[in-house]
């Protein structure tokens, strides 16, 4: 009577994501699913939840094979997935969300009284004391998450609950409440699959753990039998390859000096980055690394503190234009939303910030543009190097080269290059070229700062690494100290969940 | 073999040209215009004469003057619905300054242009520096500016004298002055969109505002400036209309003009959702509309039928454009796999 997964295989094109995964989860078991980025965790979860159809292999629930799955069918069979991006609608009330699309009716009108009664019962069962007429947008994120679970509970007989990095955006007290709910679900015999980047949590709530690496099960067993160090070493692939050694004495003057900077979800931070240095920020989702970089780039105004570039302060409310004037440029993490003009040509995508500087009095300089495009496309190895091809028509890796090339093309005017998840959705070949561009830019005297949730990437690229969690720097590593293993240890072992184990969560409601 | 086509640098562009249907769909408006000219020429002896072509050009001139900046706004993801009333306000103020205040025509024209620009900047500040929707703001000022116009004067000022007559009806090298001005505005618009860095920023804002902002583009100042420019253009349009009519009726000058401008811009293939459009398309849209109106008037088609034909043309053009892009998309996908 388990959720059984047998020899699951899934590939995209020639690239195999899952190559034969076996997994068994018994009723009332909390099963932690771990692994580095790209190990296949998301794909496995999508296969179970019916979002993705596996190429081969079988998934059975209580002995019944699940076939021709769609998200709707999976949900009907009792498999509920709680994604990081919740499906609740902010402008509707708690009740309206719970009943959305399945409203109780009397004579064609919504039966509000019945809906309210059912909602109150449900909220009580989940220990949530809140008014059913509260707008969901006014609730803190932890409560929304519990509500999402309640919604699933209301709509189907939940037999499998999949929680995809549920604690990434939760505060410590919210995490405790979630864990209490997980324990209650467990008592009801629900099978719980739980992914996280915080290893400490695994030892708090999980019964069994499975580590995926390169699409296969690299480690699986009862949590009680496995030491944390072993999990870390399996996640990191057992290797601690050293970074290319760079003499610290090569480094030039301080180019970026951050003093007491605080912004949305991070800080206060003090950081100095020198000319020629590549600094890696390592941390899981929600560690504040992205908002730190975006604040430096002018996307958000700092709430306190500030920073200097080459000794000159950068105005707090100047926006990205001011940051760029001072020589700070950002390669953002969400390419499609923040960086790419999909329907515009490669030339527009690569040269947009350079058009004015190439021309005179705002009038463009076609010859100069052609030369700069050819030159930059060559440096980043853009493929195909076609200036008229539309941005969206390039592969992920080449789109990223367009975005990176945008700043490479005017590197002379830059002092600090910030990169947020520089190789997300990028193939291996392009990844190496992107690293090379970063190293070249550092060699030219720029201060390079990148953020990544991929320990391997930090180990390969960074000369110095800051490990971040919940908006703070919790460890600093330099040179040979930076390995996947040390990064993971520092990020997880002692700091995954710092809350008191003993404290019973006090469940109450209200705005934060 | 399929792989080589996909990686040929100019593969998509050449592929599009090779396919006749694709080309036809993409130039549907141009083909429609040619067919229309052939049809009207066959129907009426008066259609293809120098005098009538001059008529079409004169009646399209003001439309083009305002359609050029309107297209820039729409490509950027904004819109100005108040231009009809800005035309009225600028025309009436110019007229009453000449007639009631005895200003020289030159000074009055400058005042009219200034009023238009000011009206545009009001829109620009409200739209660019608050989170108010451009449609709501300019729908509001459409009525506000019309109200002010009618408050200023009930009956139309008229009889503006020699200078205005020259501006509205004078010829230079056989071509009416407003047409020369429209040609100049079009040339400036094309130079701006294709020849300047800011022109690239127009597309960048329209396609992905967040990416433009993070790349240092002035995502607020550029819309503000272009709202000022469309106000100036509307002011110019008002002055030219008043000059041509030698009268500026507060209740009717420019009424419905904003929708005419928008129709021409959208007919010309500018996407209402922003990010897409060309200056050539806008020119084509304006000429198409002008020829359609003129030809039907020559054929004594009643006004209601003209309106129906214009509406049908807009919807059909949008449909064909969508079809063309879908066909192109399908073909690219097929070629890639």
Task: Summarize the topology.
The complex is a heterodimer of chains A (512) and B (337).
Chain A lengths: L2 E10 L2 E11 L4 E5 L6 H8 L7 E6 L2 E2 L5 H6 L2 E4 L11 H6 L5 E2 L2 E2 L1 H14 L15 H15 L4 E5 L7 H16 L3 E5 L3 H7 L2 E6 L2 E7 L5 H8 L18 E10 L2 E9 L3 E5 L6 H8 L7 E6 L2 E2 L5 H7 L2 E4 L3 H4 L7 H6 L3 H4 L7 H14 L16 H13 L7 E5 L7 H16 L3 E6 L2 H7 L2 E6 L2 E7 L5 H10 L19
Parallel strand pairs in A: 3-10, 3-11, 6-9, 9-10, 15-20, 15-21, 18-19, 19-20
Antiparallel strand pairs in A: 1-2, 1-4, 4-5, 7-8, 11-12, 13-14, 13-16, 16-17, 21-22
Chain B lengths: L1 H6 L3 H8 L1 H7 L1 H16 L6 H26 L7 H17 L5 H25 L4 H19 L9 H8 L1 E2 L2 E2 H19 L1 H11 L1 H6 L6 H25 L11 H11 L11 H20 L4 H34 L1
Antiparallel strand pairs in B: 1-2
Helix pairs in contact in B: 3-16, 4-15, 5-10, 5-11, 5-13, 5-14, 5-15, 6-7, 6-8, 6-13, 7-8, 7-13, 9-13, 10-11, 14-15, 14-16, 15-16
